Description:
The structure holds two protein chains of two kinds.
Chain A: H1 4-14, H2 20-32, H3 34-52, H4 63-83, H5 89-115, E1 123-125, E2 133-137, E3 142-147, H6 158-162
Antiparallel strand pairs in A: 2-3
Helix pairs in contact in A: 1-3, 2-3
Chain B: H1 7-28, E1 30-41, E2 53-54, H2 57-65, E3 72-84, E4 88-92, E5 97-105, E6 108-115, E7 118-126, E8 132-139, E9 143-151
Antiparallel strand pairs in B: 1-3, 1-9, 2-3, 4-5, 5-6, 6-7, 8-9
Amino acid sequence: MMDYQQQLDLQAYLDGELSEAKARRVAAWLAQDAEAAALAIELRQTRSAVTGYEKEIRLPESREFYWSKIQREIQRQERAEPNAERLPEWLKVIRRLLMPATAMAMVAFIAVMVGRQPTGIPSETALTDTGAMTYRDFEKGATLVWLSYPADNEFADYEAAMFE
Amino acid sequence: MRPKLNAVGWAGLMVCLLAFAGEGQAQAAVLKLEAQLVWGTDDSKPPAGKNYQPVQPELKKKLKDLPLKWSNYFEVNRKSLEVKAGETRKEPMSDKCEILVKHLDNSDLEVSLIGKGKEVMKRRQSLPRGEILVLGGNAPNATAWLVILRQAE
């Protein structure tokens, strides 16, 4: 069973892309390996089928003239771009001033939006392992957060912790 | 190539100005809150030597609607606090228990519970008028401590 690299070597061999030494090795391998030989035949047939049926395009003018038209069109578009910048001088000044202002405004806007806290959605962050459980009754408008604080081993001084 | 200011740029500028205006308005808002430290118990009286008063009936009913098992609730302490949008207020509820309230926007809050100087819980949520946020835990002799936060009437 051929591996992927062997298949690539075979394709390169058929395309004439291998060095002389490597091409000799592949040719020797092809002569001994029936599977490789079968793949080589299939690849040759595929190549001939593709090249044989490739549609030939005939240009209405000479090759040189055709490419010169493409070149002229590229040059025309490059010249057209600066023409679009013909604006009154005062407008150019305003645009130059507004560009940094707009950039600052965009940055400030993003900062404001990022800085805004999410609304309406409760979220909880337990900074210590309190084992908090949350119960929310939307209808009654009540939220209960039950904590295991003070921890069991602190019950002795609980009142001192919470009430005193 | 020179930069171009197009409609998107102008729109960004306008939106930003509006956002700043809105932010300024929110900054002016003040949230008036009421915080209560409550003791939950099945006893009909407060502990000996303590003059704790029963919580208001309306609050007692709200607590009854929660999955809490105690039949009586006594107010240990009550504090009123006003927090401007964007600001944080620290309010001691007892010598060793305090809450930290940050007013985020409108009725949105960030509440931290501090016990013995340590932040034991931080929660962020909306607290519209009429709603309550109850932070609680078990206490000795099958009782409970509660910190109840709500908008002042």
